[in-house]
Amino acid sequence: MTQPFAPDVIFEDDSIIALCKPAGQAVIAGRGLSEEPLQAQVSRYLGSKAFVVHRLDRDASGLVLFAKDAAAHRKLCSLFEARKIHKKYLAAVLGRVEGPGMVDRPLRAFGSGRTGVSEGGKAAVTRYKVKEELSGGTLLLVEPETGRRHQIRAHLYAVGHPILGDALYGSPRPVGGFARLMLHALELAFAVGRSYRLRAEPPADFARVLEDLRRAR
Questions:
Q1: Local structure of residue 163 (DSSP, 8 states)
Q2: Distance, CA of 83 to chain centre
């Protein structure tokens, strides 16, 4: 049975719909996935096909954009490929980070499902700024210039600051013992016909972890 869908719609017009995805929700169908993916739920909500424009890690929360028709899908995909969509994320990471900074290291996918730094990989650039010092960690505003799979997670792990709650990079258990990945897709800015600046504030489970880390300082 499909579950009732109460979408957290951030923005909607004739061409696109943007939602705030909760952590743990898959965007598209995949091997071993038992629950209905977000794309199918949005398609049912719209009463027509929702076209996937980009992906967000299942364990992350935040802004996900869908096109409502093939023409809008082509335009948006071309913007992502041309790096003309500006993306901002929040990431709470392990350790104290001195910033601002940039990670410019090629990445490639490995058979384990992980992505890692490799000389034979594809170019990948991630910029970050320090927003706040936390107990045992740092809250970063992250701006990836490229869109490789797990790019932010792999880059921050590679420089010694894995994202809190990440069970895939840096530890067999979630980093720091947190129940969710502390990565949130905050904002997308682009122009297609008109200018868009879409923003999804962090959900309650993300905010609770930050508050706990602030109190522990």
A1: B
A2: 16
Q: What is the CATH number of the domain that holds 97?
A: 3.30.2350.10
- DSSP 3-state assignment of 5? coil
User: Is 57 labeled as catalytic in the residue annotation?
Assistant: yes
* Residue 197 in domain: yes
Q: Cα–Cα distance between 171 and 154 in angstroms, integer?
A: 13
Half-sphere exposure in the Cβ direction for 190 (13 Å, CA)? 23
For 202-214, how does the pLDDT look when each residue is reduced to its tens digit (9 = 90+)?
999 999 999 999 9
Token readout for 43 is 């398609």
Question: What's the pTM?
Answer: 0.93
Contact assessment for residue 144 and residue 133, using Cβ atoms and an 8 Å cutoff: no
Asked if residue 87 belongs to a domain, the reply is yes
| pLDDT recorded at residue 57 | 94
* 98-140 residue pLDDT tens: 989 999 999 999 877 889 999 999 999 999 999 999 999 999 9
Residues in the chain: 217
In tens, the pLDDT along 154-210 reads 999 999 999 999 999 976 678 888 889 999 999 999 999 899 999 999 999 999 999
Q: Which of 8, 57, 205, 212 is catalytic?
A: 57
Residue holding tokens 């700024």?
A: 129
- Structural domain count, the chain: 1
**Structural domain for 107, as ranges:** 9-207
8 Å CB contact between 164 and 138 = no
Amino acid residing at 144: P
In a domain, 2, yes or no: no
Tell me whether residue 55 is in a domain: yes
